[in-house]
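Batch manifest line 199
LIGAND: glutathione
JOB: complex structure
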Amino acid sequence: MIRVHRVPFSTNVERVALAAGHKGLAIDWVDHPDEDRSAIVELSGQRLVPIAEFGTEVVRGSMRIVERIEAERPEPPLLSPAGPERAAALVAMDWFDRVWKGPPNALDGPEPPDADALRSRSRRWTGWLAALLGESDYFGGDALGIVDVCVFPFLKYAVLDPEPGDEQAFHAILADLLRADLHPALDAWAYRVDSHPRA
Ligand SMILES: N[C@@H](CCC(=O)N[C@@H](CS)C(=O)NCC(=O)O)C(=O)O
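JOB STATUS: finished
ARTIFACT:
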């Protein structure tokens, strides 16, 4: 069984939980307090979660873990094994992590001088995502795909409130940014993906 280390309320951990839930794969979760990550640092040399142990191999990075789960348990698929659909999904995921996440991350702390520009950039980019989804049920088309798994734990704050006890400013920032405009199809998608199982 895959062992995965997590802290409470982690967006990136939820990606792994969704992917494994989709595959019917059980995870041996190891819980750590947010404020004491010494065991995570000892295991992986850094403090971010999720960290997965596949036997003796330690894998870090939520989407690398999801791709590894996909390789080990291909059915039901989250990602096309080859071709343009696979490439489009990989581009979307990298763009989401390296670009879309920029404004909420930059706003998580003292108000930066370019806060207004960050907010309007975030609104524009979320509009692009809503357009990418279009009238489809999922970013993956008719079924949950790897892009849904990648973006859901962040975009869900368009309609879902942070869980009780979750005081992370980042999640409140996401809710604020995502609720600046109306995206009914994106909202319906968030409720749809939220109904999927988590490991
Ligand atoms: N690129 C990493 C990012 C992981 C990450 O930022 N994890 C957050 C929790 S969602 C974390 O551990 N943050 C702690 C910190 O920033 O000190 C991934 O996809 O796993």
